[in-house]
Each structure stands twice: as C-alpha cells, then as structure tokens.
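HOLO CASE FILE
Compound: Phenylacetyl coenzyme A
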Amino acid sequence: MTTPAPTAIEDLDEQANFDALIAAEQRIEPRDWMPAAYRKTLIRQISQHAHSEIIGMQPEGNWITRAPSLKRKAILMAKVQDEAGHGLYLYSAAQTLGITRDEMTEQLIEGKARYSSIFNYPTPTWADMGAIGWLVDGAAICNQVPLCRASYGPYGRAMVRICKEESFHQRQGFEILLTLMQGTEAQRDMAQDAVNRWYWPSLMMFGPPDDESPNSAQSMQWKIKRFSNDELRQRFIGMLVPQAEILGITLPDPELRWDGDHWHTSEIDWTEFHEVLSGRGPMNAVRLQNRRAAHEEGAWVREAAVVYAAKQAAKQEAAA
Ligand code: FAQ
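Model generated. Tokens follow.
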C-alpha cells in the first residue's frame, strides 16, 4: 500500500519531510504537518482505544460490590479507576489531532464508534476477574508495548504510562486465578470455566487475520502499528502457554501445538467476531445503555465544571 498523494504543491516538501521523519524513527508531534489520512487513522485508532478503556470498566465494575474480601475489592476498584485514567490519557492524545472530547463521546454513545469486541462478554463469576486480568490485560500488553514506539508522539507517550499499569493488572489477574487453582475443586472449575469463555475472545482482540485486515499495511508503513495482528496473536499465545502450565489451567484448544516455527491453533470463529462488531454480541446493548445512562447522569457535573471554570477565569481577569 502506498501513502496517499499530497494534494497541493506546497504539500510536496511537507510530505517529503514527514516521510523522512518516519524513516528516521523520529516522532511526529501535534504541530507537525501530517498527511490527512495519517491524522484520520490516528483519530480512529486512538479514539477506539479510549472508548475501549471506558467501556472496559463495566465488566469488572460489575464485581466491585461483590469482591470476596476488602483487599480484593480495593485492588479491583484501583484497577477499574486505572482504566478510566487510560481512557482520559487517550482522549487527550486524540484531541491533539483536532477532534474534541465531546465529538468522540457523542460518537460512542450514539453507537457510531467502535470499541474492543472483548468488552461485550458477560462476567458471571468472580473467576472472570482473574481471566480478564490474565487474558485481556495480557493481550492488551502484547498489543500495546509496541505502540509505545508509535510514530505519533502523544500516542506513544500515553502508551508508556498505560503499559506500566496494564502489566500490574495482568499480574493481579494471574494471582486471582492462581489462588482459585490452589483452592477447592469448585474454585478450580470456576477458574477453568472463566478461561474457557475468555480465551477465544481474547485472541480476537488482536483484530482480523492479516489477509483480512484493511488497515494494517498502511499503519505499519506509517509506524503506528509495528507488528501485524497475526504476529501479535502468535506472540500472545507463546506468552500464555508456560503461564497456563504454572496455573494448572488448560487452554481450551485441543489443536494448540508448537509446530517448529509457529503456534498451530484451531480455526478462530470469525463469524462470532463479526457478530460482536456488528453490535450483536452478548452484552453490546447493555454496555452502550450503561454508558449513555452514566453520561446523562453526569450532565450536572459537566455543567458545574463549566460554570466553575468560567468563574475562576473571571476572578483571575479581575485580579490582573
Ligand atoms: N474489536 O484493519 P484492522 C484495553 C476493527 S485493550 C473491535 O486490523 P486496525 C485494556 C478495526 O477497528 C483493548 N473492532 O484494524 C483494558 C477496523 O474497523 P474500522 C483496546 C476491531 O486498527 C483491559 C476493522 O476491525 N486496545 O482496552 C477489533 O489496523 C481490561 C479491521 O481491522 C486497542 O484499541 C476488535 N478487537 O487494527 C481495559 C489497541 N479488531 O476502524 C479494561 C489499539 C479490529 O476500520 C479492562 N488498537 N477491529 O471501522 C489497535 O492496535 C488496532 O486498532 C487493532 C485493530 C489491533 C485493535
């Protein structure tokens, strides 16, 4: 795939400069010239990523009131708050590209924006908190560590902070599963059942197979993405296999084996993935409805913040 042609003569120099910066592994910053399609791709990816963090608070938020101990509750609350923080860093990074937070929020609550497929699955048991941490945060780390080197400065820098926290999240998920696996038979069954339900959706998080991924080639050329969807999926499986052994958990794929240079797996059910992307996953409607309700209930906070900021500005002006 080639970079779309610049439209004006003066853009030619700018395009050459942009290409040179990308080739030299330099960062593109908000005030730099960038091709319109690069800007659009970044807005698409970063806003989807921000929405995922915000919607992603819901599956675990479901267990805050029912965590099995005060310590577990405190840890879970901190994790869910971290996801909110990640959403805010990412919305801020997207705003540097010329879209407003209000526009992005509207796209989300009107159901026009994508967010990660993974957050459209239910969390019926406490073991789901372990499976989300181990598998979902684990997949997030695999996908996001390379994004720390994304060519767009504000995105790459946001990812550095986010990855540090995701790494802690992954460990707390692993530790929840380890505790359950060292418990009673019922607890071990609950952990295995949660992994059985989250394993395949976590593989889908990396996106469609490379030959069906319309955006990958261009995003890799622009050094936004550094690895293809399938490369990262392979890396993730390689990370899980030894950890599953330590846990004593079986990854639910009888075909899974190392065949010398890559992980052989059963066919991923891409029909399920496309159903979820089309809004027909088990929890799509509930997730959006909850987000809409939270947005409406938070209207008074936004109004109060605007009035407070205006008052502060007036005070400062009067004092100057
Ligand atoms: N879900 O051509 P590609 C987290 C869409 S982690 C929904 O391959 P691309 C942490 C894709 O947008 C989760 N849609 O696209 C957490 C495109 O549609 P479009 C968030 C998906 O962009 C943990 C179409 O399919 N992480 O939140 C998915 O090159 C626990 C074709 O796909 C990120 O967003 C999917 N799984 O690659 C929070 C990471 N996959 O836009 C709470 C940053 C693909 O053309 C609790 N994003 N699509 O209409 C990325 O790395 C990329 O955007 C990919 C997709 C890899 C997701």
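CASE NOTES: The first strand starts at residue 257 and ends at 258. The CA atoms of residues 272 and 281 lie 8 Å apart.
CLOSED: yes
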